[in-house]
Design goal:
elongated; Arc Repressor Mutant, subunit A; mainly alpha; 69% helix; Rna Polymerase Sigma Factor, Chain: A; 201 residues; 2 domains
């Protein structure tokens, strides 16, 4: 890294970054990366996810460098706010992810639990779940995939697809029923899948 960059202020580095000098981002990372990673780690409580957050934050910083306004606060304060928001968003998505399956698992709580040694390996179970999902109508499968893999709540799905919330809820209910039948055919119970659930708010 050049001495010119090392001696530049944070504001100057962002200005350089806005003009396309990507080495400026590396310089900012050297200055604040460890602090920001520690902040994210305290929120998401998983190092791999915290590292993903920092990567996303610096990609966002690169894209928005030209929008930075010094009068609104220091560069490091801006980055701290960005990392904090991204960390909170990731935690919310993670907590929502798969809540659908937890509800169904609760419905099946009266069934006899299998001996852990009889459970299929994760890889085999996941393959069977993918096959079961593939049997669903496109609309139902997409609703479950968005809720499970992207962690969106029902209102968020409804807003994104511009359809009534009630439509999304009934679509998800039908999809779960169809998925349960498909999983039965694959000899997999929704109760065996660890997850969380999309919220109604």
């Amino acid at each position: 890294m050049s001495r010119r960059l090392e001696s530049s202020s944070d504001v100057e580095l962002l200005a350089l970054l806005a003009r396309g000098e990507l080495d400026a981002a590396a310089c900012i990372y050297d200055r604040y990366g460890a602090i920001l990673l520690a902040l994210s780690l305290r929120i998401v409580r998983d190092r791999a996810e915290a590292e993903d957050v920092i990567h996303d934050a610096f990609m966002t910083m690169t894209d928005r460098a030209a929008q930075y306004a010094p009068e609104r606060g220091s560069v490091v304060a801006w980055l701290v706010t960005l990392v904090r928001n991204l960390s909170i968003d990731r935690t919310r998505r993670r907590d929502r992810r798969g809540v659908i399956l937890r509800r169904v698992a609760a419905e099946e709580s009266t069934s006899v639990a299998r001996d852990p040694e009889q459970l299929l390996s994760d890889a085999t179970t996941h393959a069977r779940v993918r096959r079961a999902l593939a049997t669903l109508p496109d609309v139902q499968r997409q609703t479950l995939e968005v809720a499970f893999f992207e962690g969106l709540s029902y209102p968020e799905i409804a807003a994104r697809e511009n359809v009534p919330l009630g439509t999304i809820k009934s679509r998800a209910a039908r999809a779960l029923s169809s998925l349960r039948e498909a999983l039965d055919a694959e000899h997999v119970s929704l109760a065996d899948l660890v997850s969380s659930e999309p919220s109604d708010d």
